[in-house]
Amino acid sequence: MERQEFRAAWSLAAVFSVRLLGLFMIYPVFAAYAQGLSGATPYLIGEALGIYGLSQGLLQIPFGLLSDKFGRKVMIVVGLILFGVGSAIAATSTSIGGVIFGRVLQGAGAVGSVILALVADLTTEENRTKAMAMVGITIGVSFMIALVAGPIVASFIGVSGIFWLMVGLALVGIALTQFVVPNPRRVRVHRDAETVPALIGSVLKNKELLRLDFGIFALHAMLTASFLVVPGLLHVTLDVTSHDQWIIYLPVLVVSVAVMVPAIIVAEKHRRMKGVFIGAVAALVVSQAMLYADARNVYVLLAALVIFFSAFNVMEASLPSLITKAAPPDAKGTATGIYSSAQFLGIFVGGAVGGWAHQTGGSAGVFALTAVIALLWLLAAVTMAQPSYLTTRLVPVGDGHGGDAESLAVRLRQVPGVAEAVVIAEEKLAYLKVDSKRFDAAKAEAVASAP
Known about the structure:
Layout (H helix, E strand, L loop, with lengths): L2 H23 L1 H8 L7 H9 L1 H19 L1 H21 L3 H13 L3 H10 L3 H55 L17 H8 L2 H20 L3 H9 L7 H23 L4 H22 L3 H29 L5 H51 L8 E6 L8 H9 L4 E7 L4 E6 L6 H9 L2
Antiparallel strand pairs: 1-3, 2-3
Helix pairs in contact: 1-7, 1-8, 2-8, 3-6, 3-15, 4-5, 4-6, 4-7, 4-15, 5-6, 5-7, 5-8, 8-12, 10-14, 10-15, 12-13, 12-14, 13-14, 13-15
């Protein structure tokens, strides 16, 4: 990776992380804080926790499309301003309604798709996967740091202080965008990183992709709903206040990572993805059933949390890989965009429906809901097709091919290791799905560049 590309990747990963850090820090401490807001009910607390996912899920793709017209950095700055304003409103609100409004504005700054598009603008085809991996790793690390840091930070500055911290993080993100992130030479649509409106219909008809979309929806619905009641249960069973619960989350997350790494190695290297996937979903079912049966038993509660977060991290690592494997070669960006929107809509549903379940059935009602969601996901996962273990590769196309895109695609499909090929003449790119163990990259480049 060239120095400029590395700079682009780490700086944009930092912009992504400063936003997510604040959003996730709220999770373990919000339910206890919100009980002191005027007008708060269990349902409205759940809505307040998850509603940023609604505006984020609905605006994620439009933000990306607008960035094609108005510029990437412009839309990132606009999104971070919305995020900062929403954070300030939530920080100063003394009513649950005010916090809900602030959270809606936080989610309206849906810059994730724009950041990925800018990564694509600033990297070459051969280095783009590495840059995207840097961003993906940053997201995962930010989540784990936030769960541990949230209670610690709240003990010093309170939950309203965390909202003010988000304002500061938004300003940091704006400064990084304006002064550290390189300026792209040109802005163009990247089918491997952006949503293409013309491809949305075909992606939504793909049953394998829809299974995966439901998976990320279900995963984050369960996560959000769980955080409405888990902090209270930890307080009751272990006599640990929400500000000290990082002592619980830290070892739980360490164990979950220790489980995730070998699971992903087995899934990817040894090509046992479906078995690992179904096993992780089954573990989610077991964890929610344990919580429903006896969440007030300290041993059951801690064991269920370890099982849940172990499975959660396995799914967070494997689902994006499965999306790449299942998506058509020229629709990876579109499939990823819809997948991301499903994730945020899951956050909203988990908060809103989880809040309703908490209000009507207490903690048992929440875990009954999450157990049903996990069971539905297990039924969908069992019927999934075996993953193809193919990856997407982009190969530049020479000028001499002109309008002969289909014949070039046919020749590229004859290259060892190439399973699918789509040539977009106007982009001068061939989008390939390849078996990396057999793919002859040199031959593919020679075919694509030959007149």
